[in-house]
Amino acid sequence: MRILTVFLLLACGLAQAQAPQPPYQASEPLSWELKNARWFDGRQIQRGNLYVENGVFVAKKPAKVNRKMDLRHQQVVIAPLAEAHNHNLQTAWGWGQYAQTYLDEGVFYAAMLCGDPAAVAEVKPLAATPAAPDVSFVTACITSSDGYPLAAVLPEPSPEAAAAQKQIVLVDSPAQAAEQWPAIKARGGQWLRLVLAHSERPDLRGQLEHFGRLGLTPETAAALTKLAHADGRRVVAHVETAADFDAALAAGVDAIAHLPGYANTLDEPPERFAISDDAVAQAARQHTAVITTTAATDLFRLEAAPLAALRDVQRANLAKLQAAGAPLLIGSDVFIGTARAELHALDALGMDHATLLRLATQDTPRALFPGRKLGCFEPGCEASFLLLAGDPLADLTQVDMPLLRVKQGRLLTRLADVAASSSQVSTSTADPPPQKGGKKKTGKAKSTGKPSSKAAAKPQSKAAGKAKPR
């Protein structure tokens, strides 16, 4: 297994150095036997054997096994990661640029939070293939007529350009919310996204320099949330400040995108981003999930002192939410990245590794796809996992280079011949060495419980060589 590990690490490094690389392909669903495995169960590392058949974990060894591995309690198996906030897979261009990066980084689940219905329609067939991340799309993104993200999506932001565009729905009052609700429903999707940005600053309205950077009034957000819930839809709210956080909670949204303090575009005092104890308690009571997005702070290239002040607020906000039991979800909002960037950003803020891995591999994927059994290894759970070289609880960077990617029992590989041939029954590191000769000796034969070290090592190396294509 050590030889196999070294080979896989070298192969991963060589593959990353080559560009462009072929896309990932998926084998047929395989039956797996992982002997002497270690896996992260959401709290700690467990030990034992894992079995996979028909795309799910099963209790017993399948009658026919395609892939056997003896992990010798060295490698660690974790569930794939999830990204709760991004925009890079919601167009066909973005998919072509970044979908393979998701698989490279072991991120199998994602939420795209502001897609145009026509653009998303082009992407959905691409996301419906076995060798692709599973994506939840938000196609109803709602802001005010001078709100975010108009300044980012319009070449020349102006009231006329805002009114002419079709990607973002513009609503300025509860009455308009009711009037436009049929058109909002027609955009499809189970979620809609509301934008609250500096909602406590009505004085910013009408100022040209802030056009396209504001958002809904609290009353309009509440009206839209009520309409969505009556129609069986869920709501995620973009927020900037602690006051926006309060307004989102008062509206009754299901999730809040951005921990207040992820950015400070108006150069405001840090206390404007500090969540109050009452708000934290309300978020926990209402089970309102908070998508962290602390990695996005680095995109603003702040000076050392303002950056340190924001990071202090982020630490305090995270500590309060965790202590109260408010649900947290991993999301980066880094267009050129994935949830892995957020994993390391939260690690730098001091969050413990067990909590980080639980959020990334269990809480977040289950929130994105609540009808599925994800992030678990019990019988009936989807057999999607990553094989790591070492223990991520001790060294989080182990997550950065998966040795193996398996999605619903299918091996994901860039090697087309490996994907095509993987369903054949094969030998591996779990197979005992073949016995020479067909007859058993009698008389002085000794019975030993352990083979000699030389006898064990030789077939192990041979088996590792057979298992090398990944």
From TrEMBL:
<dbReference type="InterPro" id="IPR032466">
    <property type="entry name" value="Metal_Hydrolase"/>
</dbReference>
<feature type="signal peptide">
    <location>
        <begin position="1"/>
        <end position="17"/>
    </location>
</feature>
<feature type="compositionally biased region" description="Low complexity">
    <location>
        <begin position="421"/>
        <end position="430"/>
    </location>
</feature>
<feature type="domain" description="Amidohydrolase-related">
    <location>
        <begin position="208"/>
        <end position="399"/>
    </location>
</feature>
<dbReference type="InterPro" id="IPR006680">
    <property type="entry name" value="Amidohydro-rel"/>
</dbReference>
<dbReference type="InterPro" id="IPR011059">
    <property type="entry name" value="Metal-dep_hydrolase_composite"/>
</dbReference>
<keyword id="KW-0732">Signal</keyword>
<feature type="region of interest" description="Disordered">
    <location>
        <begin position="421"/>
        <end position="470"/>
    </location>
</feature>
<protein>
    <submittedName>
        <fullName>Amidohydrolase family protein</fullName>
    </submittedName>
</protein>
<dbReference type="InterPro" id="IPR051781">
    <property type="entry name" value="Metallo-dep_Hydrolase"/>
</dbReference>
<dbReference type="Pfam" id="PF01979">
    <property type="entry name" value="Amidohydro_1"/>
</dbReference>
<feature type="compositionally biased region" description="Low complexity">
    <location>
        <begin position="445"/>
        <end position="464"/>
    </location>
</feature>
